[in-house]
Amino acid sequence: MAYYSMMLEVLPALLAFLLCLLLTPLLADFMRKHGITGLDVHKPPPKPVVPEMCGIAMVISLLCSLGLSAFLFPQYSDIFVAIALSTVIVALIGLVDDLYCLNPIFKACLPALGGIPILLLSAYSPRPYLPFVGRARLTYIYPFIIPVAIAVTSNATNMYDVLNGSMPGSMGITCFFLAICSILLGRIEGLIIFLCLSASFFGFYHYNRYPASAFSGDVGSLGMGAAFGAAVITTRLDIIGVVAFMPYIMNGFWILTSVKGLRERREIRHRPVVFQDGFLIDSANPHAPITLVRLLVCESPLTESEVVKRMMVLSALAGLLAILTTFLILA
Q1: The whole model's pTM is what?
Q2: When comparing pLDDT for 261 and 214, which is higher?
C-alpha cells in the first residue's frame, strides 16, 4: 500500500518531466520560425541565435501535473488550484513583457497579483512556525505579505536567469530539497508540488544547459518563480522556503542596491561580466551592477559552465540549510 501511494505521489512529477522534454523543442521550433529569438551574449562571435519564450513548456507542464495531482489527491485541490492560478497570472505578465517590454516598475510590481488566488481560496496559514520562537500569529499582516512574497520570488527567479542552465538547474535543486523537507514534516501536498516543480525545471534544463538551444523568457522565469512562491506559502514552508531561496534573494538584493532601484535588463548599459577567450571575467566597471555571477568570477575567470555549476552548488548548500531548519522546527 505504501509503495502504491508513493507511486501516485511521484506520478504527477513524472508527467511534468516528460511533458517538458516533449514540449520544449516543439516550442523552440515555433519561436524560431516566428523570429522570437535572442542572442546568447556569453559566446564567441558569431553569437548564437536562440529561441526565446520556451519557458512556456515549464508552465504548461506544471499546470498539467497540478491538474493530475488534483485528480489523484482531491483533498488538496484548493492548494493545487491556487498555485496553478498564481502561475498563470504571473506567466501572462511575463508573456506581455516578452512581447512588448513592460515598464520596469510595472514588471516588478504586477506579479503581486499572483497572490490573489491564494487569498481568495484561503490556501494559506497565517501562523508560520519560527525556529526557537514557536508559532507566530500574523492573522492581519500575513495576507499583505503574500502578494509581496509572490513578487519577490518571481522577480528573483527572473534575475537568476542569466546564463545557460543557471535558473532551471538551480531552481530544480532548490525545489528537490524542499520536497525532502516536506517528507520530514509529513506534508504530502508539499512533496507532490515540489517534485512537480523540480521535474518541470529539470525537464527544461536539458535544453537550456550549455550550450542552450532554448531560452526561458520572462514568461517562464516569472511564472515559475511565482509558482515557487505560491508553493512555499500554500504548503506552510514559509521560513524553510526563505532559507532555501536565499541565494536568489541575495542576488536580487545586490542588483537592486547597485543599480539604485528598479531597472529593466535592457536598460542596464554596463555589463557586470564580459566574455573573453572562452571565459567570463569581471568587467571591472564601477557603473556595472553587482551580481552573484560577478562575485563568482571576481577573483579568477571561469567558463560559463563552471559559473553555473557553482550557482547550483550554492542552491544545494541553501537546500541543506533548509533541511537543518526543518530539523530545528521538529525539535
Answers
A1: 0.95
A2: 214
